[in-house]
Write a structure and sequence with these properties.
The protein is an all-alpha fold and about 60 residues long. It is about 85% helix and about 0% strand. It has two helices and no strands. Helix 1 packs antiparallel against helix 2. The longest helix is centred in the C-terminal third of the chain and has 37 residues. It is elongated, with a radius of gyration of 16 Å. The termini are far apart.
């Protein structure tokens, strides 16, 4: 499995939003894009949570 890339995921989410807002795609394709976007969103959220935890841990080490 490929390593998650936050920046690429955000870029792809932007593309998906643009495609869905355009409204010129068949319903089945729109559903697939929505599903992809949902997965990317979860991945981004998880990456942000991990980054926040890492920053918190580093801050605690520097304080101590």
């Amino acid at each position: 499995m490929a390593k998650f890339n936050y920046e690429k995921s955000i870029a792809r989410l932007s593309e998906i939003v643009e495609l869905l807002e355009n409204g010129n795609i068949p319903l089945d394709d729109a559903i697939k894009l929505f599903e992809e976007g949902t997965k990317l969103t979860k991945g981004c959220y998880t990456a942000l949570e991990k980054a926040e935890q890492k920053i918190t841990d580093i801050s605690k080490i520097e304080e101590g």
